[in-house]
């Protein structure tokens, strides 16, 4: 429905959290924002598991922790880098795992370099990297050259060691404000209690270094051998209901459903697309085109490839940039479905400026949001805003059938509980209706640009659109049988062009006309591991713990006898187990190259400590008539092959590691005004509260929630309160280079003054769920936040900017 800030999914499942011995919860307040996660954490705690929480504030999650560390917002990479350094220096890593399931031994190109904050290949003009040098050394066959031991100076492991040698506990402490002894305690505790689990959400992603922060988690979990294990892994606790489903369906404009790269205008033909993205993307794209264009998609017309509009890489705004592009006149119409950007976008004045330039704005929502009446905000002049606004009242979650996919990749079906009120309609019906009306208007057109509308395969019912038919389209059909695809295996085995799927990772969810596996509610758990295989359906192929091949030893037997996921059965010659085996081929044993691969989505088959570019022609069988094309593979990052610490865009101090390169050099900057620490000395961080939901349109219209959480506030330390002469409940003005707002002060011990490189530093915390409309209006925190985004994910740096505060 709504913007998904941050991609990813959980490697494991909710119930699996009960198998953990230790949790590092850094960047999430799950007690308030993901209470179900907290329920399973508490199950594990009852069995003795340790909980570590790192947060700028002492949260409700922190109140459950064995170890709590208060951190300066935006500095996690500094202490995580120090953990990596410590694990390597003290040999605390899992050597078998590192040698067998990571790229530690792969030799890196001699051209690769890192100097003073920049990796090799940086172009200061475009502020982008040419990542050709972030490559493996290759043999004559194009395969990565492997070192004989982890001591080889060219190997990934040594690159990692050198890179993080700068990250001492002392440097990390000066940057983050966490005492040295506590960083050491966190590192020791997390390495000792296995399997260890890591949770993250916005505290880690809403930064201009968001992706690289999560890469630190991947590196730590690979070093400790925690990925692919029950109770291990990395859990992206995702936000909006069905945000996982909407990312699977490609709500980001660089993707197609199933995480296929979106074609750009440089890829004029299907062959060009395959040449750019690799043979491996050929089948899913053709299958997608077959789902979208049905019988109109044929080999002769490249399965309708020409009907897909192409992206223009020179002008491809990410969502936080849309409103500036609107202001420049790039958009005429906005269909705003289930999102309240007027409250939620950072530096929010950009939103009304953009919306004011549209010809038409359509808002489909269950409440009359701030966005649906943006022109009414104080300070705007409706007489000067020509935008026509249409409001479509939507049916709420229990008034419609359909599937929702949660963070653990679990696709769950639900039925209608109540008929929609009055004129409200399910979103699917509204879109179905709009599409059919548009198609009628285009009937008989010979204009090539109308062809995609006229040729689309659109058949979800005569009057009310059927969500089940949509799910079946995502599952796909096999031409050979004329039936629904029965499993992911069937999809993978079918030749290109003989199978359709609207989202290949969903293959198998509806294996037959009368079977909808998302609708299953079997709660049997014979293993006691919380695998619950008969409850709904997890993509891909109902696997509950991704990369579970890494839970086995060289003979294919479980390394943890208490937590057995899968194993090789030498009698049947088959990978079998309690979970679905995440292997290349179930019949290929642990002594075959395929049977050793735990990370099959990477062409080299191992997890990446160093995110190298790697091209492999052997990963996917090329279709007839199209040459095998090597691919870049998953797991690439665009701002460095290993995470590096950069200060947030607005920061109170110079970068201690390399003052010449203060910030992420690739960050996407949208805001125009920036402040300096002399004028704006404090760091603001923003967060959600349990009583309100996001931009608040729903919860600010619920009287009893307004009663318990009536207004926003600024959390400040007792020191800061004294400095500015305010007490609890006084009105304060919080201001940044971009705007200001007046709220009450909440004077608290939950936030303490930090020592940053010897100097006192204050943090201010503010919830952000208020706006000018609803039963209970309030000032918006996004008046002051900054629109600057992570270069890879496009997530804005909501979690830190510079502000000042004074008595109002
Ligand atoms: N009740 C309720 N539930 C929700 C939501 C809601 O608004 N209300 N929103 C939903 C949505 S869309 C999402 S995306 C999720 C968000 O879920 P969370 O990410 O868990 O929620 P936040 O409160 O945004 O941020 C989490 C914590 O990160 C901390 N933090 C800030 N900066 C940093 C940092 O630099 N480092 C570290 N380690 N921590 C930092 C904040 O102080 C905060 O306690 O919750 C979902 N669930
Ligand atoms: N300062 C600051 N700003 C933030 C964040 C932060 O941490 N700090 N977090 C960011 C995050 S993680 C997110 S996800 C965004 C969220 O930003 P938005 O997506 O703009 O905010 P929501 O309030 O989730 O908007 C969802 C809307 O959908 C409507 N809705 C609910 N159900 C339905 C339905 O079935 N159909 C239709 N048509 N509408 C429906 C709701 O009434 C609501 O108005 O905000 C971001 N903004
Ligand atoms: Mo979110």
Automatic annotation (TrEMBL):
Main location: other
Compartment annotation: Cell envelope
GO molecular function: 4 iron, 4 sulfur cluster binding; electron transfer activity; molybdenum ion binding; molybdopterin cofactor binding; oxidoreductase activity
InterPro entries attached to this UniProt entry: Asp_de-COase-like_dom_sf, MoPterin_dinucl-bd_dom, Mopterin_OxRdtase
Keywords annotated in UniProt: 4Fe-4S, Iron, Iron-sulfur, Metal-binding, Oxidoreductase
GO process annotations (BP): anaerobic respiration
Family annotation (SUPFAM superfamilies): ADC-like (SSF50692), Formate dehydrogenase/DMSO reductase, domains 1-3 (SSF53706)
EC number assigned by the record: 1.2.1.2
Cellular component per GO, a single term: cell envelope
Requisite cofactors: [4Fe-4S] cluster
CDD domains: MopB_CT_Formate-Dh-Na-like
Root EC class: oxidoreductase
Gene3D superfamilies in the record: 2.40.40.20, 3.40.50.740, Dimethylsulfoxide Reductase, domain 2
Molybdopterin dinucleotide-binding domain span: 684-801
PANTHER family, per database record: FORMATE DEHYDROGENASE-O MAJOR SUBUNIT (PTHR43598:SF1), TUNGSTEN-CONTAINING FORMYLMETHANOFURAN DEHYDROGENASE 2 SUBUNIT B (PTHR43598)
Family statement drawn from the similarity comment of this UniProt entry: Belongs to the prokaryotic molybdopterin-containing oxidoreductase family.
Entry protein name: Formate dehydrogenase
Organism: Syntrophomonas wolfei subsp. wolfei (strain DSM 2245B / Goettingen)
């Amino acid at each position: 429905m709504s913007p998904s800030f941050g991609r990813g999914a959980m490697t494991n499942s909710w119930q699996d959290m009960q198998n953990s011995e230790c949790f590092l919860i850094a960047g999430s307040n799950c007690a308030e924002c993901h209470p179900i996660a907290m329920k399973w954490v508490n199950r594990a705690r009852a069995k003795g598991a340790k909980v570590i929480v790192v947060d700028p504030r002492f949260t409700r999650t922190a109140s459950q922790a064995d170890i709590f560390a208060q951190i300066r917002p935006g500095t996690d990479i500094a202490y995580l880098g120090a953990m990596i350094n410590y694990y390597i220096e003290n040999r605390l890593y899992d050597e078998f795992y590192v040698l067998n399931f990571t790229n530690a031994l792969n030799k890196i190109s001699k051209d690769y370099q890192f100097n003073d904050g920049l990796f090799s290949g940086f172009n200061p003009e475009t502020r982008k990297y040419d990542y050709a040098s972030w490559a493996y050394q290759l043999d004559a066959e194009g395969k990565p050259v492997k070192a004989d031991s982890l001591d080889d100076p060219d190997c990934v492991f040594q690159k990692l060691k050198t890179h993080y040698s700068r990250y001492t506990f002392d440097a990390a402490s000066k940057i983050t404000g966490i005492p040295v002894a506590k960083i050491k305690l966190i590192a020791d505790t997390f390495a000792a209690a296995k399997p260890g689990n890591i949770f993250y959400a916005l505290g880690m992603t809403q930064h201009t270094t968001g992706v690289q922060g999560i890469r630190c988690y991947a590196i730590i979990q690979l070093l400790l051998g925690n990925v692919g294990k029950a109770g291990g892994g990395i859990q992206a606790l995702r936000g909006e209901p069905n945000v996982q489903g909407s990312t699977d369906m490609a709500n980001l404009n660089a993707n197609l459903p199933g995480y296929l790269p979106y074609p750009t205008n440089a890829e004029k033909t299907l062959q060009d697309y395959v040449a750019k993205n690799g043979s491996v993307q050929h089948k899913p794209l053709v299958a997608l085109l077959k789902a979208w264009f049905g019988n109109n998609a044929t080999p002769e017309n490249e399965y309708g490839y020409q009907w897909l509009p192409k992206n223009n890489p020179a002008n491809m705004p990410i969502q936080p940039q849309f409103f500036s592009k609107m202001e420049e006149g790039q958009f005429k119409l906005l269909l705003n479905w289930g999102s309240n950007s007027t409250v939620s976008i950072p530096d929010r004045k950009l939103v009304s400026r953009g919306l004011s330039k549209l010809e038409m704005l359509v808002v489909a929502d269950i409440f009359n949001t701030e966005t649906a009446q943006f022109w009414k905000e104080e300070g705007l002049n409706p007489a000067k805003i020509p935008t026509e606004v249409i409001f479509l009242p939507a049916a709420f979650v229990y008034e419609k059938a359909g599937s929702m996919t949660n963070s653990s990749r679990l696709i769950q079906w639900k039925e209608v509980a109540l008929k929609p009120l009055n004129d409200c309609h399910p979103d699917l019906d509204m879109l179905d209706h709009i599409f059919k009306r548009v198609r009628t208007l285009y009937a008989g057109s010979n204009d090539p640009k109308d062809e995609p509308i006229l040729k689309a395969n659109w058949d979800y019912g005569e009057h009310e659109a059927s969500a089940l038919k949509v799910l079946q389209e995502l599952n796909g059909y096999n031409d050979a049988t004329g039936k629904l695809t029965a499993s992911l295996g069937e999809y993978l085995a079918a030749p290109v062009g003989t199978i359709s799927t609207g989202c290949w990772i969903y293959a198998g969810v509806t294996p037959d006309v009368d079977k909808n596996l998302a609708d299953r509610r079997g709660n049997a758990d014979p293993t006691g591991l919380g695998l619950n295989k008969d409850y709904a359906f997890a993509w891909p192929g109902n696997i509950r713990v991704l990369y579970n091949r890494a839970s086995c030893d060289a003979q294919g037997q479980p390394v943890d006898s208490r937590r057995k996921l899968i194993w090789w059965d030498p009698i049947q010659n088959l990978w079998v187990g309690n979970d679905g085996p995440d292997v290349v081929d179930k019949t290929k044993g642990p002594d075959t190259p395929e049977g050793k691969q735990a990370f099959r989505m990477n062409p080299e088959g191992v997890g990446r400590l160093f995110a190298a570019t790697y091209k492999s022609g052997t990963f996917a069988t090329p279709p007839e008539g199209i040459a095998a094309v090597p691919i870049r593979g998953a797991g690439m990052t665009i701002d460095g092959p290993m995470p590096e610490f950069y200060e947030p865009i607005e920061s109170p101090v110079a970068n201690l590691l390399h003052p010449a390169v203060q910030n992420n050099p690739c960050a996407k900057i949208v805001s125009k005004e920036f402040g300096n620490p002399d004028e704006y000395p404090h760091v603001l961080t923003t967060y959600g509260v349990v009583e309100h939901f996001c931009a608040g349109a729903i919860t600010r219209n619920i009287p009893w929630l307004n009663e318990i959480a009536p207004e926003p506030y600024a959390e400040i330390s007792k020191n800061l309160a004294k400095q500015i002469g305010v007490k609890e409940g006084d009105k304060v003005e919080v201001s940044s280079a971009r705007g200001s707002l007046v709220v009450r002060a909440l004077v608290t011990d939950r936030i303490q003054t930090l020592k940053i490189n010897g100097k006192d530093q204050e943090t201010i915390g503010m919830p952000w769920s208020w706006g000018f409309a609803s039963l209970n209006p309030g000032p918006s925190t996004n008046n002051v936040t900054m629109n600057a985004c992570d270069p890879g994910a496009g997530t804005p740096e909501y979690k830190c900017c510079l502000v000042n505060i004074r008595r109002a």
